[in-house]
Amino acid sequence: MSTQSTVARRTEFSPERMAKFHEYAEEYPNKRSALMMVLRLAEEEFGSITDEAMEIVAGLCNVAVSHVQGMVTFYTHFKRPFHGKHRFMVCATLMCALENNTDAALDQIKAKLGIKPGQRTHDGLFSCEKVECLADCDQPPVVQCDNEHFCSMKGAVLDQYLDKLLKEEGKSAAEYAAKAPVAMDTRVPTLPAHYNFQGGTEKGARHFDDKDPYFKAGEGDLHTQVPGPLATPLTVPVADGVNGKGTVSNGRSGHDSAGGAFNGNGANGKNGAKHV
User: Fold this and answer.
1) pLDDT of 235-257, one tens digit each?
2) Coil, strand, or helix at residue 252?
3) Is 227 helix (H, G, I), strand (E, B) or coil?
4) Rounded distance, CA 99 to CA 256, Å?
5) What one-character DSSP code corresponds to residue 188?
6) CA gyration radius, the chain
7) Phi, psi of 136 (to 5 degrees)
8) Which long-range contacts (CB under 8 A, 24 or more apart) does 142-147 make?
9) CB 194 within 8 A of CB 55
10) How far is Cα 51 from Cα 49, in angstroms, rounded to an integer?
11) Helix axes 51-61, 65-74, angle to 10 degrees
12) Strand 86-91 vs strand 126-131: parallel, antiparallel, or unpaired?
């Protein structure tokens, strides 16, 4: 008999954040609409948006886990487990990049923390990224760290801020100069491993909204089906037609370049596309 133990996965937030969730639920027209705010609660609860956090948020907002993950990976401001505790986001868009502003801020971060964009310190406390426009284009370079937004963040101002964070964490720049940084794996993952269903086959898979996703292989209905090849005017040569036959200029794929009557058969094709 297997004695393998498993760590119980949490199914809800702490009482304090659950109370906040219910406040959001009353403010929005439906729970789905509160998704971004509930993800912020998850960040506070877990320190980042973990797979476990996404499952809880999906349940609270009555959406699929895949929908939550789509939100998290579309909006880059959500903190993921690969980020550092303190996440530096440096604007690299044109207005900040001019006059070497972006590079100046990145050089200062590297000098203090030993990390370049795409890297995290060995202890997981700090990470650095180049990001797109953070607004305030008239006050470059713009930098965000955690939930703080800074303008003209270079020179003495940035050095003082870095020193403050190092002091709060009981660290020194010399410590990071002596340790190699870690490359962050920022690739978008598939759905959490917890949701790799055994019942999925090459013919289809169960939908992620199933109430009980833990079917054994072969149990439960397939909610999605893999469609066959789709023949459309956009996927076949006009002259050859859908069935690979025909040599007339208008073909069988439904293009009527002359703008004549379209009756769905003959030279005018059979799929319904018409060029006017």
Assistant:
1) 444 444 444 444 444 434 344 44
2) coil
3) coil
4) 55
5) P
6) 27
7) 55, 45
8) 142/90, 142/91, 142/96, 143/88, 143/89, 143/90, 143/91, 143/105, 144/87, 144/88, 144/89, 145/86, 145/87, 145/88, 145/89, 146/86, 146/87
9) yes
10) 7
11) 120
12) parallel
- CB contact at 8 A, 206 and 200: yes
Instruction: Decide if pLDDT at 64 tops 90.
Output: no
Tens digits of residue pLDDT in 107-141: 999 999 999 999 999 999 999 999 999 999 999 99
68, 54 in Cβ contact below 8 A? Answer: yes
Instruction: Please name every residue paired with 87 in a beta bridge, in sequence order, or none if there are none.
Output: 127
Interval 157-204: pLDDT, tens: 999 999 999 999 999 999 999 899 999 987 766 555 444 444 444 444
d(CA 5, CA 222): 31
Which of 183, 89, 186 has the alpha carbon at shortest distance from 130?
Answer: 89
Residues belonging to the chain: 276
**Closest residue by Cα to residue 33 from 66, 69, 71, 65:** 71
The answer to whether 58 touches 67, Cβ cutoff 8 Å, is yes
Residue the block writes with tokens 């997981």: 124
Q: How far apart are CA 133 and CA 114, in angstroms?
A: 24
CA pair distance 147, 40, nearest whole angstrom: 11
Q: Is the pTM of this model over 0.85?
A: no
More confident site: 113 or 260: 113
For 142, residues 6+ apart whose C-beta sits below 8 A from its C-beta are 90, 91, 96, 134, 135, 136, 149, 150, 151, 153
Q: What is the DSSP string of 78-134?
A: S--TTS-SEEEEEE-SHHHHGGGHHHHHHHHHHHHH---TTEE-TTSSEEEEEES--
